[in-house]
Design goal:
This protein is mainly α. The chain contains 5 helices and 4 strands, in the order αααββαββα. It has helices at residues 2-83, 87-168, 173-186, 208-214, 233-238, and strands at residues 191-195, 198-199, 221-222, 229-232. It is rod-shaped. 9% of the residues are buried. The structure holds zinc ion.
């Protein structure tokens, strides 16, 4: 029985490692889509910046055509000045001219400010483009590491499966059946060592008589509290 218990302990270690690797593998596609999302967010920031610049340039061009239209009205008014007959008309055109002058200098000022804003936005887009390149580089590296690790994990998983196959052949079918039953029920640790009368599966006390019997390793014992297969921990670690 001692040898059989030893094999079950090995099988359990294989199972724990197998589950650990499987859960790592299950997280890989999530990690990859997380990295892809990070990169596409960075690309989107650039697109937003470009759209803003387009918007600003459109505004600038529209100011420019306002300015030109205003300028041609201004020139026409200037021409009209020489043809006026009355002082009143003269004064009224002069006022028009002054208004248009003021309006155009306002437009000019706004256009200069727009140019500043465009320049700032262009600098920001170029900063975002550089940032994108470094994010892209880092993500490429992280993905390569993930791919390498995944390959290694898959290889290890196959090796564990093979090891399980060869080791489990040495367990009697009856014991294997019981072991599988407990595995299904406990979904994890099916076999637990007992140290100082305490089952390490559930941390409860084992009755003294059972604890004594455990040390003889002559029959299969189950924890009365968690129903796991139990064995004398001290003895096993010394053997
Ligand atoms: Zn227990």
């Amino acid at each position: 029985m001692r040898e059989q218990i030893g094999i079950l302990v090995q099988l359990q270690e294989i199972e724990i490692e197998t589950n650990r690797i499987k859960s790592v593998l299950a997280g890989v596609s999530g990690k990859i889509s997380g990295l892809d999302a990070e990169l596409s967010d960075a690309a989107q920031e650039i697109e937003k910046g470009k759209a803003l610049i387009d918007e600003l340039r459109k505004k600038y061009r529209s100011s420019e055509s306002d300015y030109q239209a205003n300028l041609s009205s201004y020139n026409k008014s200037q021409e009209r000045l020489s043809a006026v007959k009355t002082n009143k008309e003269y004064q009224s055109i002069l006022k028009e001219i002054d208004d248009m002058k003021a309006k155009n200098s306002g437009i000019e000022e706004a256009m200069l400010k727009d140019l500043d804003v465009i320049e700032t936005a262009e600098k920001e887009v170029s900063r975002l483009k550089n940032e994108f390149l470094s994010i892209e580089e880092r993500i490429k590296g992280e993905k390569n590491i993930l791919i390498d690790e995944t390959e290694k994990d898959k290889t290890n998983l196959a090796a564990l499966e093979e090891k399980w196959g060869s080791i489990s052949k040495n367990v009697s079918p009856e014991l294997m059946r019981k072991f599988n039953m407990v595995r299904e029920r406990t979904r994890g640790i099916a076999i637990a060592p007992v140290f100082d009368s305490i089952c390490s599966g559930c941390n409860m006390n084992i009755p003294p008589q059972m604890y004594n019997e455990l040390q003889r390793f002559d029959s299969l014992k189950f924890c009365p509290h968690c129903q796991r297969i139990i064995y004398w921990g001290k003895e096993t670690s010394m053997s």
